[in-house]
């Protein structure tokens, strides 16, 4: 990936396919913008200052051109697909507008998102969404099938995600709806992190999602997660730049503190938002919940003091889990979340390291039939499991060779830290995990010894005086 279009403010921010013909021999694919996309420089855009808009518009400055592969629909086609946008086709609503379920003539079921012209987003966000999803492809990013730009109509057509959003399965569940189990929660977190990793580490320049939240994680069959709604996405800093300065956008409760205060945006801003969503998965609580008592309305502010006392870790688990979770898995998940939501951006892990840790957690299948909070015994694959444990432990402890997918190490050691520091929490969690592993190994040794004694018919422990 290294391919984003260049916008010329002198042409009223049009996508200009004929600009810079001298660059036609580049290896990157060439963008030929459809005429209806070029016409998106509506009167609303024409009124904006051309000086400021060149930097702000989409954030796609000084980048090579690419071909937009998304299909172009007419408004009539999408009206027919959704039964003229009738209420029975309505499936949700967000900052962009209303979303309808539809069916194309081919039989493909799709989700059609119609821009609310009086809503929070507009042509700018529409263009970002079309371009970003035309250029970025990954199993954990939603697929854009096409778009419509007839007259003043702006619609986006996506693959249909039958299970809705993560938010639908975490909060305000109806009595007849089963809550997500622990294994599913870890798999959703792992998949969402992989989607974010693609934006940060694989796209060039990196893409900052800027609106990571539970309602923007859509779920396919088997709760396979995909990130959606790229209208607020920005290109990250390049060269020797440490951040991108922009107006503050996003959702309250998910925004990183440094971004909310200064408008300085980095990939670590997304990591903070991920940490909030991961806390939602662990606790079942909303990022902001005004129905909670004072002091519990902000999820991060409520959770941070509980990180301080390992005796309270179990209280952080979603009550809907009814104790059906592995205590060791809970400790490790809390360690990841606590580091992601650190106040200082520099202290947060890179998303590649988060993916390494969560891939491990997602692969540790928990059997709900075991005693709640019970530590699983090592079986025949004990050596392999211990090796994996050691790798995740090195990530938490910032030891050599454990930098994860990003090639960097987590800074969770070093320096004197206050007791309520997330770094101190990570060390405490890791110490407890080591202790539990030692206990599990001791139990395994004891059971092996008892089996051997029964086989040999011995009535006493011959090595008791060694």
Describe the structure.
This protein has 466 residues and is an alpha+beta fold. It has 2 domains: 7-159, Phosphorylase Kinase, domain 1 (2-Layer Sandwich), CATH 3.30.200; 166-447, Transferase(Phosphotransferase), domain 1 (Orthogonal Bundle). It is 36% helix and 10% strand. The protein is built from 14 helices and 14 strands. It has helices spanning 35-38, 43-46, 50-56, 75-81, 123-135, 166-170, 182-202, 257-262, 267-283, 299-306, 327-340, 351-363, 382-397, 422-456; strands at 7-8, 14-15, 71-72, 90-93, 97-103, 109-115, 144-148, 155-159, 207-208, 217-219, 225-227, 234-235, 244-245, 264-265. The strands form 5 sheets. It has a 6-stranded mixed β-sheet with strand order 3-7-8-6-5-4, sandwiched between helices. A two-stranded antiparallel sheet has the order 1-2. Strands 9-12 form a two-stranded antiparallel sheet. Helix 7 (182-202) runs antiparallel to helix 12, helix 9 packs antiparallel against helix 11 and helix 11 (327-340) runs antiparallel to helix 14. The chain starts with 6 loop residues before the first strand and ends in a 10-residue tail after the last helix. The model is unreliable at 1-64, 373-383, 398-421 and 459-466 (pLDDT under 50).
Query: Biggest sheet, open or closed, and with what strands and sense?
Result: 6 strands, mixed
CATH topology title of the largest domain: Transferase(Phosphotransferase), domain 1
Proportion of strand residues = 5-15%
Radius of gyration: 25 Å
Q: pLDDT under 50 segments (min length 5)?
A: 1-64, 373-383, 398-421, 459-466
CATH architecture of the largest domain: Orthogonal Bundle
Approximate helicity band? 25-40%
CATH structural class of the largest domain: Mainly Alpha
Strand neighbour order, sheet with most strands: 3-7-8-6-5-4
**Tally of discrete structural domains:** 2
Compute the separation of the termini in Å.
Answer: 64 Å
DSSP strand tally? 14
CATH superfamily of the largest domain: Transferase(Phosphotransferase) domain 1
Structural class: alpha+beta
The overall pLDDT, averaged over residues, is 75
Report the total helices: 14
Q: Sketch the topology as an H/E string, one letter per element.
A: EEHHHEHEEEHEEHHEEEEEHEHHHHHH
Form type: globular
């Amino acid at each position: 990936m290294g391919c984003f279009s260049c916008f010329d403010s002198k042409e009223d921010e049009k996508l200009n396919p004929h600009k810079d013909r001298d660059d036609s021999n580049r290896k990157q694919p060439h963008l030929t913008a459809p005429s209806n996309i070029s016409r998106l420089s509506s009167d609303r855009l024409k009124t904006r200052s051309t000086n400021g808009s060149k930097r702000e518009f989409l954030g796609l400055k000084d980048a090579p051109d690419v071909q937009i592969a998304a299909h172009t629909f007419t408004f009539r086609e999408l009206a027919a697909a959704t039964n003229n946008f009738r209420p029975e086709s309505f499936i949700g609503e967000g900052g962009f507008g209303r979303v309808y379920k539809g069916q194309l003539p081919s039989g493909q079921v799709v989700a059609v998102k119609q821009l609310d012209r009086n809503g929070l987003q507009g042509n700018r966000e529409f263009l970002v969404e079309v371009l970003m999803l035309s250029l970025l492809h990954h199993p954990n990013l939603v697929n854009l099938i096409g778009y419509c730009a007839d007259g003043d109509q702006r619609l986006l057509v996506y693959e249909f995600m039958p299970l809705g959003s993560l938010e639908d399965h975490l909060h305000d569940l109806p009595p007849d709806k089963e809550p997500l189990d622990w294994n599913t929660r870890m798999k959703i977190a792992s998949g969402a992190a992989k989607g974010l990793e693609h934006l940060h580490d694989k796209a060039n320049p990196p893409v900052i999602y800027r609106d990571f939240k539970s309602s923007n994680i859509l779920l396919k069959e088997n709760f396979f997660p995909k990130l959606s709604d790229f209208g607020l996405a920005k290109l990250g800093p390049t060269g020797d730049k440490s951040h991108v300065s922009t107006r503050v956008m996003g959702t309250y409760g998910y925004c990183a503190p440094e971004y909310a205060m200064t408008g300085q945006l980095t990939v670590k801003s997304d990591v903070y938002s991920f940490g909030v969503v991961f806390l939602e998965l662990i606790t079942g609580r909303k990022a902001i919940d005004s129905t909670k008592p004072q002091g519990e309305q902000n999820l991060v502010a409520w959770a941070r003091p509980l990180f301080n006392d390992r005796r309270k870790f179990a209280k952080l688990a979603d009550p809907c889990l009814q104790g059906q979770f592995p205590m060791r898995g809970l400790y490790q998940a809390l360690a990841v979340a606590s580091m992601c939501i650190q106040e200082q951006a520099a202290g947060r892990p890179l998303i590649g390291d988060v993916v390494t840790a969560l891939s491990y957690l997602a692969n540790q299948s928990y059997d709900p039939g075991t005693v709640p909070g019970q530590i699983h015994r090592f079986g025949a694959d004990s050596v392999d499991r211990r090796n994996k444990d050691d790798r995740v432990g090195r990530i938490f402890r910032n030891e050599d060779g454990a930098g994860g997918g990003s090639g960097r190490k987590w800074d969770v050691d070093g320096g004197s830290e206050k007791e309520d520091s997330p770094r101190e929490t990570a060390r405490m969690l890791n110490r407890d995990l080591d202790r539990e592993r030692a206990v599990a190994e001791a139990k395994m040794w004891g059971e092996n010894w008892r089996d051997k004694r029964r086989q040999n018919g011995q009535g006493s422990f011959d090595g008791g005086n060694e």
